[in-house]
Write a structure and sequence with these properties.
alpha/beta; UDP-N-acetylmuramoyl-L-alanine:D-glutamate ligase; 36% helix; 6-stranded mixed sheet; globular
């Protein structure tokens, strides 16, 4: 059977992040991708100039259209900027009994632009986090979810991951890409397990869409039947290779995208 994954996220008109990055990742990893668009962004490698939110009722219509027809094996959730849309997505996941859900709490773009309304942060914590198999915040996002300072050590990262578990997350992948050091270290924190994933830090400005790509790669692995730990390891490898190849392509004049199809061209 063909593995199918769905991305529930915003559109990046520049093609480097959001649903565009997710669908590229699904395809690169041998998974059929479908999408539910939550917002349109006017965006390029230099930043976000406008956001047009999709009405919650239309988000629900997309969810029902996709899940009533496709045999979906995993779901990735990215940019969900409004309270009503978050509640609609949560209801849709329950209605279609989706359990392999990867939640990437997209709050700030690589350019620094805010992508989540302040009043929606609490709803994201309370309503969506408990429905996700894994939540994948970077260090600033974890800090925002916890109203805490940004973690600067692995000890602090682990403590924040455990606090997110206490808020209802079933597993947390805390991403260390914003930290310093020769290695980029991510921590997978589960109620009964802990995994440290390290890779050499890659010197490149082409980091646009890295978080979207990682979370969708995890969803792709889950769709193909991998365990959570296996899917996270495979996704980390894929993103590291996509970052290493990012300078082979020249896209835009700001933070360019990673090279999703590095294995082919």
């Amino acid at each position: 059977m063909t593995p199918i994954a769905v991305t529930v996220a915003g559109s990046d008109s520049g093609g480097g992040a959001g649903i565009q990055a997710d669908l590229k990742t699904f395809s690169a990893l041998g998974v059929y991708g479908a999408s539910v668009i939550t917002a349109l962004t006017a965006q390029n490698t230099k930043g976000v100039t406008a956001i047009h939110d999709v009405p919650a009722q239309f988000v629900a219509a997309q969810i029902d259209a996709v899940f009533s027809d496709l045999d979906v094996s995993a779901v990735k959730i990215g940019m969900v900027s409004q309270r009503g849309v978050i509640e609609t997505i949560a209801a849709g996941l329950a209605r279609w009994r989706q359990s392999r859900v990867v939640l990437d709490p997209v709050m700030i773009a690589t350019s620094g632009d805010k992508l989540l309304a302040p009043d929606a942060v609490d709803v994201l914590r309370r309503v969506l986090m408990p429905l996700a198999l894994v939540v994948t915040p970077n260090l600033p996002e974890a800090a925002a979810l916890l109203d805490a300072p940004v973690a600067h050590t692995e000890i602090a990262m682990r403590e924040q991951g455990e606090r997110l578990l206490a808020l209802g997350a079933r597993a947390v992948l805390l991403k260390g890409g914003h930290a310093d050091g020769a290695e980029s270290v991510d921590l997978l924190i589960e109620p009964t397990a802990f995994t440290r994933l390290a890779a050499d830090r890659i010197a490149t400005a082409n980091t646009h869409g890295t978080g979207c790509t990682l979370s969708s790669a995890i969803a792709a692995g889950l769709a193909k039947g991998l365990s959570l730990a296996e899917a996270v390891r495979a996704a980390k490898t894929y993103v590291t290779e996509a970052l290493a190849a990012a300078n082979r392509i020249k896209i835009g004049s700001g933070h360019g995208p990673v090279h999703h199809f590095h294995a082919w061209w």
